[in-house]
Amino acid sequence: xxxxxxxxxHDPSANGKSPTQTYTIDIEEDxxxxxxxxRIREEQDSTLAFRGSCRSGFCGDCSMRLxxxxxIACRTTMAQVVKGDEVTVDPIRMIKVAKDMMFDxxxxxxxxxxxxxxxxxxxxxLPEREHKVSNEVIKDLRKVMSCTMCWLxxxxxxxxxxxxxxxxxxxLTKAYRVVADPRDSRTNERLHNLxxxxxxxxxxxxxEATEHCPKGIDPTERIFAIxxxxxxxxxxxxxxxxxxxxxxxxxxxxxxxxxTRLAIDTEGGFTHFLAQIKQIPLGLKALKRGKMPRxxxxxxxxxxxxxxxxxxxxxxxxx
Amino acid sequence: xxxxxxxxVGGGFxxxxxxxAAKAAGVDAALxxxxxxxxxxxxxxxxxINAALSDGDSWQAHxxxxxxxxDYLNDQDAVEVLCKEGIDDVIQxxxxxxxxSRDGQGKIDVMSFPxxxxxxxxxxxxxxxxxxxxxxxxxxxxxxxxxxxEWFVTSLLVDDGTCRGVMAQDLASGALxxxxxxxxxxxxxxxxxxxxxxxxAFGATADAAALAYRAGxxxxxxxxxxxxxxxxxxxGLVVTEAxxxxxxxxxxxxxxxxMSSLAPETGDMAPRDLCSRAIAAEIEAGRGxxxxxxxxxQHLDGALIDDLLPETQLLVKSMxxxxxxxxxxxxxxxxxxxxxxxxxxxxxxxxxxxxxxxAGECAxxxxxxxxxxxxxxxxxxxxxxxxxxxxxxxxxxxxxANRSPGSLAGDEExxxxxxxxxxxxEDSIGSVRGELAAAMHxxxxxxxxxxxxxxxxxKINQLKDRYQRVSIAATGGPYNPSLSxxxxxxxxxxxxxxxxxxxxxxxxxxxxxxxxxxPERDDDNWLQHTLATCSPEGPALAYKPVTITQWQPQRRAx
Lengths: 319, 558
Hints:
The complex is a heterodimer.
Chain A: E1 2-8, E2 20-26, H1 33-43, E3 63-66, E4 69-72, H2 78-81, E5 86-90, E6 97-99, E7 102-103, H3 105-115, H4 135-145, H5 152-156, H6 158-162, H7 168-179, H8 187-194, H9 208-212, H10 219-232, H11 238-254, H12 259-266, H13 273-288, H14 305-318
Helix pairs in contact in A: 3-7, 7-8, 7-10, 8-10, 11-12, 11-14
Chain B: E1 3-9, H1 13-24, E2 29-33, E3 49-50, H2 59-69, H3 76-96, E4 110-111, E5 121-122, H4 128-142, E6 146-149, E7 151-159, E8 162-170, E9 176-186, H5 207-214, E10 219-220, E11 225-232, H6 242-245, E12 249-251, H7 259-262, H8 272-284, E13 293-296, H9 302-308, H10 310-320, E14 329-338, E15 341-343, E16 356-358, E17 363-364, H11 376-398, H12 408-420, H13 429-443, H14 450-467, H15 482-505, H16 523-526, E18 528-535, E19 538-545
Parallel strand pairs in B: 1-2, 1-9, 2-6, 9-16, 15-17
Antiparallel strand pairs in B: 3-5, 4-5, 7-8, 8-9, 10-15, 10-18, 11-14, 12-13, 13-14, 18-19
């Protein structure tokens, strides 16, 4: 079938302008978009810049936006993204584009990966043979390590939209890989580091990372799993701990979140008297706009609250 | 001017393993690769890594399987090193943090694999290569090894028989920069893009082989080109042999399991060369469908497939729409991996050029003979990648300070700029590569004959001539892939010529090399390695005896 492939051509020397260029090619409908781009480069325009390597979805090199959606180009067929006879190809948005589909991966990507020090440091001396590890643990690690570093999770991340320094779901998923590896001897230190600013507590639970992951690794849940472990070893500052504990306690007790109490506990509870005074202006502002949550004892009982309490009982019984 | 003790060219398994070994030996090691870390094709090695770890297994049994699979063209001293040292190298990977699937006691589990007489392949579901690649990258970070990512090496800087570094283009800026080193390790991977269909990544363009060849190093046994028996019809993507290891069967269009008639003892577990030819024969005889036979998973337990072959299942589904638990998967052989490569000694050193080393898919220490045993590639990378790193570090320590290589870099820069000034040709990179890939598959593929090979050689010469007139828009500028793509094509054409010439000369059939006009193995005349050296008239062929230690050539039956 004949396709018009409309490609965004970012040219760094052209005052940051990014015009589109349309290439017409005749290729099978079940050809992948990556095949089509390679054919265009080889036969029509040797300057077209894009990344692509393994052709089979294992290397993560060819992330781009096809038909307006974030995709892996080698796992996407022309038929899947064509509208009429047009296929649009754009670079991903979160990371600065250097040229055409090439985005600048050093700072946003590899530096963050390196920042979580993602290598296993086994205890010394090493065993003579392999470490003994249960296959259940291996299966969990295997799933996390099926990550191809395609960065579509970061592309979807809502925290990164406002804070480019946030480590992001890709690097934090990699962090989980070492945190969850029983052979590693630095788990405690890692959990403390990951609880610092720009770490796991900056995730805003939008689940976009999980939605975007083409491998079903569930990066958002990996971030939560690191948080759980961090809480168990007392990592994180008092705000994080206060927030986490208050949230849990409130839902467990009443089936809903006591937001007033949450605000107080997040600032360290009543013992942090000065911190509480500082919250007064915020409270007044909320009150004025009618957004002050009602205190717990005035709150009407919510339908379904008992069901939620039940979940806690069941989970705890299982443990 | 960047200068290092050891410079590794290639960022896959062998390259990273070599860099880590060199750094651990106490020298400054750096790595240059045309792709970012983890984009290398080692991630395509889904199956696993062979090592005689289990009780009742031995390195000798592993070596014997390797030699038999290689149809006795292996250098057995190299095979002994591979199988003996490989055990510790796999444990070393585990200590680096590699995960392997475990048995009930928490020890590394091993699975059965086609061509092996015992369960010996350490695996991680069906993504061993991908996972080991990640672990090596973790180690690269830990050892703070400098990487030049997305730099394309255009040539070796060789002065008076000694390699002094490489010339490279930084693709991000387009600048040409010489990278000097006391020792250079080539780990540039395969050649697959010169075949269609092929299982390879885009980057498998024979770069390392061609760089070494032009620098005067012989290429060994290039006639041995391995086809993978089971690849997806449209794009040649691999369906791992682990599938057959776990019980999937090959069937023809009549639903008959045909392997047992050709390999009565092993059936579907026969090695790659036999299996690929058997499939081709079925298709030829009209017992295929649309150029394919079928892999049948339907009798296997769904939970087993979900657990052990999840990536394969996803690949097949997303590429063909087939649910392998309920439908047959159409497969056919496709070119997979060169078995020959740059001739190296057991330390990975290239004898012809001082200071030059090679490891992995681009190198040929003689372990694979005429047909590579599945599961040995990752092991070869682990063992010979490490050895090359250690040897290069030792060489760098003893080498005197780098003598200025004079005008080498300037000459190379001029040559590259002239390439951008070419005008006028009708051909594109794609048209030349497309015709090359079709000719290689058809005439220099699974079965070969004298007449076809002569046609292939003529075709390659013609294409080399047309290549001289392929013009590109410009050589420089940020992220302009034109120059590297043109050079890749040149690398493929030179290497293709070596392959076709080596195939034409070998008048017998052995392992992956099957001549319809010489269908029998001929130990009297051909139990020897081919060495092809670059000369003005094209590849000059010479021969070298095979090293035999304890496994005498026998009739090969499965």
